[in-house]
Amino acid sequence: MKSVAPRNKVPQLNIPKRSALLVALAVLASACFGAQVASAGPDICVAANNDVRHRSDPLGTDCLAEGQGSVAVAIGDGSSAIATLGDHNRARVIGDGSTAQAAFGSNNTATVTGDGSQASAEGNNNTARVRGDGSRATANGDNNTATVNGDGSSADAGLGDPFHDDHIGENNTATVNGDGSQAQAGIGDNNTATVNGNGSNAFAYNGDGNTAIADGDGCTGALTPIAAGGGDTQTCTGTHSATASGSLNVQNDSVQGEVNVQGEDDVQGDANNDQGDANNDQGSDNGKADEQSNGKDDNANGKDDNGKGKDDNGKGKDK
After folding, report:
1. Which is the most buried residue in 84, 99, 110, 131, by most CB within 10 A?
2. Of 124, 130, 65, which is closest to residue 93 (Cα–Cα)?
3. How far is it, in rounded angstroms, from Cα 105 to Cα 141?
4. Which of 118, 151, 154, 125 minimizes the C-alpha distance to 140?
5. In 136-198, where do the E strands start and end?
6. Per-residue pLDDT of the chain (319 residues; tens, 9 = 90+)
7. Is 171 left (phi over 0), alpha (psi -120 to 50) or beta?
């Protein structure tokens, strides 16, 4: 019998399970978005564990992941994702001209879905999320969370203490659901600032355990809920709009988290009313013009009658 040579064993790579998972995620992201790159052509950059695993355009979208278990993914033109200066940081961007940064500590997460937006989580165990265009979320310190769902809005959790630089704040939460709104919670611990509406503000800081809530549109200026000092709670509810004199007028006491589309109908109604008034004014002017012309005709007829009278007088003289 012929002897059969033993088969060569495939060498086993000594890759930690977490690193192998990150590599698989990077490859999967590249494969999943490959068709999108071919058709729509957005830039893609994937980095994990101190290495850039995929970059579709070296001069386009940028990504950087440094530290154990850190991952950075950027999908979009002119965007960047940075997870560095710590371990287990996550940074992700889906959109054009946006930036996500998780750094200066460990276990931070910064995500952006939208164009021209920014998310920054710096410290330890912070989370900054943005879903919208032209918005910003910042979480600095430890265990702080900043979330924005809307366009042109901002949320800041942690903030900075100008008097105690070593204590930015912990366990603060700033949340915005709306457009053109702002929420700030920090310069202390366990503060919460929440906005549900458009063009509204909520501030909770300068102490611990403060709560500021804006439920509705137009909670700004004198109506801005500002909770400070410690254990303070301030709220603003309803939908408010600025009048011509600059003061605020309460239109509706109910809480509305979405844009009120009826305002557009009101504007259109006003335009129609203005047009109707213009037509009425024009009709009045036409009536006056007709009356004046009729009056002129009557005067002319009168002159004719006078002329006839003179003729009659003339005939009388002849007789």
Report:
1. 110
2. 130
3. 9
4. 125
5. 136-142, 145-149, 154-158, 173-177, 182-186, 192-196
6. 444 444 444 344 344 454 444 445 444 544 444 444 344 577 999 999 999 999 988 777 899 999 999 999 999 999 999 999 999 999 999 999 999 999 999 999 999 999 999 999 999 999 999 999 999 999 999 999 999 999 999 999 997 644 455 557 899 999 999 999 999 999 999 999 999 999 999 999 999 999 999 999 999 999 999 999 999 999 999 888 643 223 333 333 333 333 333 333 333 434 344 444 444 444 444 444 444 444 444 444 444 444 444 444 444 444 3
7. left
Q: What are phi and psi of 115, to 5 degrees?
A: -105, 140
CA–CA separation, 255 and 236 (whole Å): 10
Strand pairing partners for 79?
Answer: none
Residues in the chain: 319
